[in-house]
Amino acid sequence: MAGEPQSDCLFCKIVSGEVPATIVRESETTVAFRDINPQAPTHVLVIPKAHHRDAAALAAAEPGIAADVLREAGEVAAQEKIDGSGYRVVFNTGTGAGQTIWHAHAHVLGGRGLNWPPG
User: Fold this and answer.
1) pLDDT in tens, the chain (119 residues)
2) Rg (CA), the chain
3) How far apart, in whole angstroms, are the C-alpha atoms of residue 100 and residue 89?
4) In whole angstroms, what is the distance from residue 76 CA to residue 78 CA?
5) Of 51, 52, 105, 107, which residue is the catalytic one?
6) Whole-model pTM above 0.90?
7) 51 catalytic, yes or no?
């Protein structure tokens, strides 16, 4: 069921502490941790503690928690000192966009120039 931890979800296991991660921030509704395959000098994932398949499902079911994820992304950028130089927040939704973990998450990327368009 949406919002409930899933036993086969890597990010649910990180939330529960079953799988270790380098956590940089935690709030009542979110966890932020370093990506294990960074694509920029700063690459932090911000996830809701509640399980939702992707960003669209999260926003539809729990818009307040979706807002929490975005707010925490900004806090991560400030903490990592990339807020002044610029950073990108990315939600990959679906396999065609590169989503590989089926738990909503935001990538906070910065610390280098980020070209447009991406990809």
Assistant:
1) 678 889 999 999 999 999 999 999 999 999 999 999 999 999 999 999 999 999 999 999 999 999 999 999 999 999 999 999 999 999 999 999 999 999 999 999 999 999 998 86
2) 14
3) 17
4) 5
5) 105
6) yes
7) no
